[in-house]
Amino acid sequence: MRERLSVVVAGDVDCGKSTVVGRLLLDSGTLPRGRLERARDLCAKEARRFEYAYLIDALRQEQADNMTLDVARVFLKGARRDYLLLDAPGHFELLRNMATGASHAEAAVWVVSAVEGLGENSRRHGRLLSLFGIRQAVVLVNKMDAAGYDRGAFERLARGCLNLLKSSGVSKARCVPMAAFEGENVVQPGLRMPWYRGPTVLNAIDEFDPEPPDSIRAFRMPVQDIYPGVRRDAGRPVIVGTVESGSVGVGDEIVFYPSRKFAEVRSIETYPRIGLKRAERGMAIGLTLDRLLKPRRGETAARAREKAPETGRKLLASLLWLGPSVLKAGGRYFFRLGTSKIPARLERVVRVVEAATLRGGAGRRDVRPNEAAECVLRLEKPAVFDLAAENPSASRFVLVDGSLIGGGGFVRAVIC
Length: 416
Hints:
Blueprint: E1 4-11, H1 17-28, H2 35-45, H3 60-65, E2 72-77, E3 82-87, H4 95-103, E4 107-113, H5 120-131, E5 136-142, H6 151-168, E6 172-177, H7 201-206, E7 221-227, E8 238-242, E9 247-249, E10 253-257, E11 261-269, E12 278-280, E13 284-289, E14 300-303, E15 310-321, E16 327-328, E17 332-337, E18 340-354, E19 359-361, E20 366-367, E21 371-385, E22 396-401, E23 404-414
Parallel strand pairs: 1-3, 1-4, 4-5, 5-6
Antiparallel strand pairs: 2-3, 7-8, 7-14, 8-13, 9-12, 10-11, 10-14, 11-13, 15-21, 15-23, 16-20, 17-18, 17-22, 18-19, 18-21, 22-23
Helix pairs in contact: 5-6
């Protein structure tokens, strides 16, 4: 099987994200048979100009309104590996969906219009990439045809984009000039920009470094429930959960955190399979143990010979707040990570990231809707997690405000 990498495609509305993805699919030969003809027929029937965005926009409403409303998931075949492209919406009101796409990606393609430049919402998208753990990106300066393929215009905009990403914590980034609708520099080198000697869009994406897959990270399984014994182990409890990262096998010694109870895995129960010897990331399983342990829901199982997860009650976190009300210092919320749900208080707002000016707003005591921030959270009891830099999937959390999920982010550090 070929390696696969998840890449979020972000950027402001009308910068041409969906056109970029549609053209990539067409020019790389990845587009399913008949999709191009159906898109052209639809445009002709509705007396619209043909748009490459129609190749991936799945919802009829999206086609009627000519904007992407949800995160479209499409597959792209590169020379080096396969890609899952997450085409995220760009308009401000649907920032929540863009955040959803970014939180599941390992790299980013950030599309910026050579005509519109770095507007407020475009800057917001660039700043949010690092918040969701992305450390490498390709900036596509699109619509170079509308800018007369001017080298100076590209270099000025590229400089601003790279400076923004660097200040945000994206450590590896490069810029590619392109004209998506014309196919310039998408898969084949552009003929109208002889001054550019760098890679095409597809080649630049192929240069992404592979992220360590969750399958080879340390084993983590949040405990979801305890079931009565099954089959030959009737009377012995079964610890049920989904493997978030790593793997576990029969005979492995595991430790439950934060209680630090330990036992050896006696069997792995799955349905309908019998006799499974090892379970990996993404599998929903039940574990029977060599001793009668009943860990509580919300605890996390880890392998004894691997790095232990972090535990703590006072955390430094990066988050994006999307709730209808303001996130306030002193406010009471629920912190949810894995299967745990712990009462929490926002102790302090360290800084609010102002996307438009790139300045950190110090001295603030609240975080308004659609703002990103670094905050200190104090929990009523210890939580179990990994830090974002080590194992992103085991560091993601959400904050619940009343009955609504108000926002979420990553745990950056343990204070105590």
